[in-house]
Queue: 4 jobs
Job 1
Amino acid sequence: MVDRGQIEVTVRRTATGMSKGVERESAETGRLIALSDGVFAIVITLLVLEITVPTLPPGASTSDLPSLVVEQWQEFFGYVLSFLVIGLYWILHRRVFAYVDRHDRPLLWLNLLFLLVVGFLPYATAMFSTYPGRFGVMFYAGAQALTGFVLATTWAYAARKDLVAEGLTSRLVGIQAARFVASPLVFLLSMGVALADPLLAIATWVLLVPVTAFFETRTTAEIERIRQR
């Protein structure tokens, strides 16, 4: 005859074990960060692979190579620009998970979605380098804006679901939210400007420098204020 008491004990032990397993999984962010860092490393490497070695036309000599390399300035510009912007997104992603101390399934999927759009950036860079006109600029800016908005959504979700570390003030959470939205807004602005002038649209990307500096200053000041409390 089946011992109902023994069954209940077994069920409770199983439920307890599953609960502890879920808790350990939610607290394990190391593998998530390692996967993300690996994707960033691959994407940055792929950027340089988009720069083609010039081919000498028939009858040309190696003395013509310097001029051919100079003609590739668009590819070099696209590489440097994307390297810096992707590096910026890596720093922001690192900041997100420096504050996040646990996760759930939706946050995992949001992070995977972010890595998906990051992985698309080498193609967007190649499109911009090959066709630096209106379409190329808007295509590239759109890809960068989408990447930034997905990261901003990831932070907003983590903060709303209280997955961030204890001790963060609502002010610091708000500063970080604004910081994550600022970069994609710059690219979104450039898409509108590109309709009138693609070169001016490219120039608007310089706004990323003062925007980044402004929010870094605000973040540092707020962290110091928290420490002094």
Note: Confidence is low (pLDDT under 50) at residues 14-26.
Job 2
Amino acid sequence: MRPTLDVLDPLIPARRRLAVRLLLLGSVLAALAYWASSQVRLDPVDRHLLPILATGFLMGGLLLHYRPGTAPWLLPLVHGLLALYLLASLAYQLLLKPNPLGLSPAAYWVPFVYFSAFLFFPARRALSLARLYLLLFLLAVLGALRGHFQPAHLNALAQFLGANLAYTALLYLLTSLREGYQEVQAEAHTDFLTGLYNRRYLDLLLPQELARAKRYGRPLSLILLDLDGFKAVNDLHGHDVGDRVLQALAQRLEAHLRRSDRAVRLGGEEFALLLPETPLPQALRLAERLRRAVEAMAVPPVARITASFGVAEARPTDTPLTLLKRADEAMYRAKRKGKNRVEAAPK
């Protein structure tokens, strides 16, 4: 697992808001372009695609505003729609009907495809859009071979292609730097042994989740668990076996969690599970399932593995420290009552 971008990159919500505004503005501009072109003469590309762009941008902006979770598939779809329009418009000009004044106005929007990709998509996906440049270059060559261009047109085409080559190179540099920065961030928030998040990540995420729960009045629960008698495992079988136990436990935890949940190794044999949108009864049921899953684990030569669980639901007055303390007290109460059990903190 890796830390989510919403936590490690606080600009992600700002980018989402920017995307909503750009989509709504794009809808207006596409409608204006359709109206302006209709006053002279609409080419086939504008006649068919501009209405689709205007409608698609409007619906996309509204959907992204009210359903932010649609961003992973909506933004690539809208981006692809814009790229399709640009390619179709330039292909029509380059291969079928050259513009006597030079390149089509659609050419001005090609750099936007590159830089908006960098803003809204992961680095590798953004770089894949640079292939658009190769398609445009092929279209330009085909158009030139057919004799559609005068020297003035060829000069404009050369400037356009050269500028876009520079944009692509700059995009490659920026995305490479960004990718390296995010890798360093991810390593700083990941436990090297189990692959789970570490305590530093929980210290970053918990205040944000508490603030979100208080703001929207939504439930948030925290589970703390500690392996019973883990010191004896290391003493009897060695640290290599103890490491395998911790790794097996991490796999069991991840297998039982939703995508929105977070599993954290706090240190040693102690773990935390942060559960957004989860009231106490639901968190207790999950803790009991995990208790049974841990008890059923087989890591030879260890004969039996168990864990004690403490569960707390966030109160409106809770701080990260008080929520952790209440869950910790419940966990140690489970230890005192015989271990291998689940205890709840008072609500």
Note: The beta strands are 197-198, 220-227, 262-267, 270-276, 307-313, 342-344.
Job 3
Amino acid sequence: MIPTFESDRFEPSRETTRSIGKLLFGATGTAFVLGLVTLLPGVDRLLPGTDVSIGALVRAVAALVVAGTLVYTASGLATLVAPTGRGELSRNAASIGYWLSALAAVLISHWGLAPLVAGLFGGLLWVYDTAFLLAALGPLLVIAVRLYASLDPAADVFAEKVSKGGT
């Protein structure tokens, strides 16, 4: 669900902000621990009977955890990113925040799963890349459309702020 803002002012509750922050800090911690795990001795060893390393498996799991967290918190992030005003610019900012989160989840999943897929399906890696390319185009297109739709409202706000409301 993509949030919309019709009221004069939106202020997220402390509990909502805390929950989103906790999930994002957890995802960041997972990524940090993943970096440390890749430094451990023996992580580059292949799993028996496959061309997949232990590190590739750990990387895939961690990437899916981070991507899942981004998808889960996307609507909450949109509410935190949106300006406190109302109107088209606020709705566009919220939508851009939401779809940036979705795009980041797709890109992180691609990055994290790539070594695992390469080890298992080496010759079909182009199918994997094509699938993620198609998955990333949707959010990217929405972001581009919302940025374009924000040009006039953003220019109006900029002109008003710079000229101090003058004509």
Note: The helical segments are 14-37, 54-81, 88-121, 125-149, 151-162.
Job 4
Amino acid sequence: MLHGSSWSPTEKKIARSVFDAALQSELADLIAQVRETAATLSTADELWDLQELLHRRRREISDKYDYRYPRLELLFVWLLRERRIALAQLQGLKPERLARIESVLAQALCDEERGAGAGQDDPAPR
């Protein structure tokens, strides 16, 4: 787990901007997926499957996008790993904070490569 120092007002502004942009991007992707799926619905089972998808994704997104400062560094690692954000968007954070994020990201990517080689899925960090 990442344990960072307190967040400066500038860092808080950067973090909020990156967080909001990533969340909006993920929601836009989900909306596009739902529109595509809804356009092809033809049975009640397909309708309930869509409802189930929405319920599951709402839970996942709510759990993932937790805007508490102690969790933000880990969230940014997760979003970088998913390519939902770019490291350049985090410029302006304290150098030691960026270094921690980059270090954990490098480890996660290394673990992911090892897991992929063994046919294992790496669960999302919590």
Note: The CA atoms of residues 30 and 57 lie 8 Å apart.
